[in-house]
TrEMBL record:
A Pfam family this chain is assigned to: DUF373
Protein name in the entry: DUF373 family protein
Keyword Transmembrane helix recorded: yes
Keywords: Membrane, Transmembrane, Transmembrane helix
Species name: Halovivax cerinus
Spans through the membrane: 158-176, 182-200, 221-240, 260-282, 303-323, 329-351
InterPro entries in the record: DUF373
Superkingdom assignment: Archaea
């Protein structure tokens, strides 16, 4: 007797249809196949069961003794699923009321399900294995609609089309670069863009970039001063860096050789005014947004004074290292910066405490 055994390693049949396995017999197996195909038309295990029915009909038409059954495993791992299938095969063999020797043909949809073949061979001789391959997946029409469906997904479309588009732009941009006599610069820029894109996708930075873009858009429509402050601060940082480099060159021309500490001090001396202005602009923008949004607290007003104090101190210290600031000026700057920070801290702390006390008193008066 030949047993046609349809194998479903991860129990899609039981989970999606509620059928209790093993399913034995031509009509019960057909009902299970129809139920699985109805529940999930894309599940390949439905094709496995229908293939098993097809093999059954072929053998039965030749007048040979044949039976068909569907066995399933579970989702708890390959070992547990194999044991479950072994138990169900034992149940199927025990239900066959025949004195003939039983052999089997195993029907699967891939190599994963075929991993249980040793378990089945330990219980019944295996005459053959039939792997089901859906022919529609090889049709040009099916491929066209599959590609069309993939391209309809925004995430997949961006992942595939953007790198492909950048690669296709390399040749025409290289021609433009050759005309402008900068081919290396053009190709290098395109390669850099492609590399940055692939790195961002590989590290999963796409969501952060999209979130930053959305936050920027909301900030522009909300009229937040922080955006303008950041733009101005970036420009000031660039100017400050250029000023620091020029100061290093000037000090180098005066001293013929510049050590690393002196070079760092020269760079700081030339750029700290610009950097301080950038920090001051950013803090004022944030204070403006906090005031408009009703989130401003008195202690926040310390930020501009702290920035000024630190800029004064760093300017004097760096100038002292390169001989541009005297000891007296350095002492004055250190004392003045410290006093400015202390006075601002005390002033706004006292003001905030009094404002809070007055608010509490008015609340008590209203309550009485």
């Amino acid at each position: 007797m030949l047993l046609v055994l349809c194998v479903d390693l991860d129990d899609d049949l039981g989970r999606k249809t509620g059928f209790t396995t093993p399913v034995i017999g031509r009509e019960p197996v057909e009902e299970a196949a129809v139920a699985l195909a109805t529940a999930d038309p894309e599940d390949s295990d439905a094709n496995v069961i229908f293939q098993g029915l097809h093999v059954y009909d072929e053998i039965d038409a030749r007048g040979e003794s044949v039976e068909v059954a569907a066995v399933t495993g579970n989702e708890e791992g390959e070992v547990s699923a194999s044991r479950e299938i072994g138990d169900e095969v034992d149940t199927v063999l025990a239900s066959l009321s025949t004195g003939e020797d039983v052999t089997t043909v195993v029907v699967t949809d891939g190599a994963q399900d075929e991993s249980v073949l040793p378990v089945i061979r330990a219980r019944v001789p295996v005459d053959g294995v039939r792997r089901v391959v859906v022919r529609q997946a090889q049709n040009l029409e099916s491929m066209y609609y599959t590609i069309k469906q993939v391209m309809a997904d925004p995430e997949t479309r961006g992942t595939i089309l953007i790198p492909l588009g950048i690669l296709l732009l390399i040749y025409p941009l290289a021609l433009v670069g050759a005309l402008l006599e900068y081919p290396g610069l053009v190709i290098g820029s395109v390669s850099t863009l492609l590399g940055l894109y692939l790195i961002s996708r590989g590290l999963g930075l796409g969501e952060y970039v999209d979130g930053a873009a959305e936050s920027l858009r909301r900030s522009l429509y909300a009229g937040r001063m922080t955006i303008i402050a950041y733009v101005v601060a970036i420009a000031l940082l660039v100017l400050g860096s250029q000023s620091g480099i020029e100061t290093i060159r000037t000090v180098g021309s005066d001293q013929n050789a510049v050590s690393l500490p002196v070079g760092a001090a020269a760079f700081l001396y030339g750029s700290i005014q610009w950097y301080g202005a950038a920090a001051l602009t950013t803090s004022l923008g944030q204070l403006t947004d906090a005031y408009i949004g009703g989130r401003l607290e008195w202690r926040y007003l310390n930020a501009p004074f702290y920035v000024i104090a630190m800029a004064v101190v760093l300017f004097a210290v760096s100038g002292f290292f390169i001989g541009r600031t005297s000891v007296t000026a350095l002492a004055t700057a250190l004392t003045g910066g410290t006093l400015l920070a202390i006075l601002s801290t005390l002033t706004f702390a006292i003001v905030e405490s009094r404002v809070v006390a007055d608010a509490s008193q008015r609340t008590m008066d209203v309550g009485e």
